[in-house]
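User: structure tokens for this one?
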Amino acid sequence: MVTVTFELPEDTLSSVRKDPDHFAQELRLAAAVKWYEMEEVSQSQAAEIAGLSRSEFIEALGRFEVSAFQYSVDEIAEEVNSE
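Assistant:
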């Protein structure tokens, strides 16, 4: 496990109304969701980054309004037509 430390302005946590642990968890989740959305990591990798099970991560994707599928409509149509 790797530990990453960074500095934030003092009022950041109070402005988002989160304690440091909850803020760190939310930050990990937001990063994992964004990297998944950008197709930089797989679902399982993103879930691990977020500290969640894969099913919990899929539920979180819904809260962020991000599709759990990394295929475009064109890719799905191509796949279906190739069979």
